[in-house]
Every structure is written in C-alpha cells, then in structure tokens.
Amino acid sequence: EAGVAQSPRYKIIEKRQSVAFWCNPISGHATLYWYQQILGQGPKLLIQFQNNGVVDDSQLPKDRFSAERLKGVDSTLKIQPAKLEDSAVYLCASSLTRGVYNEQFFGPGTRLTVL
Amino acid sequence: RKEVEQDPGPFNVPEGATVAFNCTYSNSASQSFFWYRQDCRKEPKLLMSVYSSGNEDGRFTAQLNRASQYISLLIRDSKLSDSATYLCVVNKGTGRRALTFGSGTRLQVQP
User: Using the beta-carbon criterion (under 8 Å), do A43 and B42 form an inter-chain contact?
Assistant: First the structure.
C-alpha cells in the first residue's frame, strides 16, 4: 500500500519569497493534517481537513500561510511571503477518519530552509 | 504551562537496560493518548496507543494515569535499534488545537 507522498523533499528560498508544498494522502483517508516541526521540537498542527473542509486551522498563521484540499484528496500548503522563522520540516499526515483513536500516517516531510 | 510536557533527555542507557519516559498533559478532558517514535531526520510513526487499563506490546508497556494526568512508556531489554526520539501525543477529540505533540524524549542505547 502506498504511503503519504510529499514533494518537494527539500526547498531553499530567500526570505520574502513564496513556496508551496504538495501532499497526496493514503487512498481513502478522509482526514489530512499539515504539521510544522522546528528542529528540536515536536510537530505542531497547522491545519486539519476532513475531506475538503477545514476542521481546525487555529494555529495556522493566516497572514502568510494558506492551505487547500480541493476535491478532498491532494492538498497544498503555501507560504507567502516566507520569514526566517519558517525554516522547519513540514509534515503531512493522513488518517482514515477523525476518530480519536485513529492512527496518523506521516509522509517523509519537506525540509524548508529560508535564508 | 505547556499542554504536553516531556523530559527532552537524552537518556543514555546500555543495551539490555530498562528505561521509562513520562509525559504530562494539562487538559483533563483529553480523550486519547499515543506514543510515536521518530528516527533522526525521519517522519514520526505510531509506536502504540495508550489505553486506560494500560497496554503492552512486546518489550514496550504504556500506562495512563488520568488522575495525575500523565502517560508513561516503559522499554525493557533496550536494543540499539530503540535509539530514537519518543513523542507523546494527546488528542482532546474536538475543538481547536485538539491534537498536541510533546517535544519528544531522545533515547540513545549504547553497546
């Protein structure tokens, strides 16, 4: 069974530039998550989708970050404009449903460096 | 106070040792609890869910103490391959910021 796919794996940009990340969840998984993981910290939930609707985006910096999940499958996360403090690994995860005991499956992540 | 707190470690233990990690959480309404394992520069993977009655999977035992609001993970007979960061995860179930990861506890098992 294919896992969660993410691209690109690495991205280096200068501050104030824009960047976009793509995620393809496991087939049939209704719930999709984007996390930001800064070095030495645990993943922080940025946004959670249930199909193509947003369940929680309370920690998404909406002045510069946006995300969408059109058609309830693939998702993109965009940063515009990027700041130095956005340097982190961006992880996408999916789960079968929103059930509280559902396992989350993570993709390999996109490592972003902002110079 | 952080919603989920873990001792960052590192815990340096010899092979064969028993090691225990604790995790405390602040929201008494939290519904589900997990331990995830994250290898260096890799994505997190589920190690085990934590149930109220406690649960065991081979060398790993997880316990939940709702009254004191902490979760524990016990690893017996440590292997070199157990070296990783162990992340505690708490799910409030509904509402904003329902899912919270701890910062992780790093374990280094030495030969």
Answer: no
Of B43, B49, B93, the CB nearest to A91: B43
> Cis peptide before B10, with omega less than 30 degrees from 0?
yes
Q: Record the tokens describing residue B23, joined without a space.
A: 């995790």
In which residue are the tokens 């559902």 written? Answer: A102
**In which element (H, E) is residue B36 found?**
strand B32-38
Nearest to B98 among A56, A103, A107 (CB): A56
Distances in Å between the alpha carbon of A29 and those of A17, A49, A66, A89, B46? 32, 11, 21, 22, 16
pLDDT of chain B, 111 residues: tens digit per residue: 788 999 988 999 999 999 999 999 998 888 899 999 999 999 999 999 998 888 999 999 999 999 999 999 999 999 999 999 999 999 987 666 678 999 999 999 999
Asked whether the beta carbons of residue A58 and residue B97 sit closer than 8 angstroms, the reply is yes
Rg (Cα) of chain B, in Å, rounded? 14
The pair phi, psi for residue A86, each rounded to 5°, is -85, -5
- Asked if B93 and A100 come within 8 Å (Cβ–Cβ), the reply is yes
DSSP B1: -
Average pLDDT score over residue span A28-52: 94
Q: Do B97 and A56 touch (CB under 8 A)?
A: yes
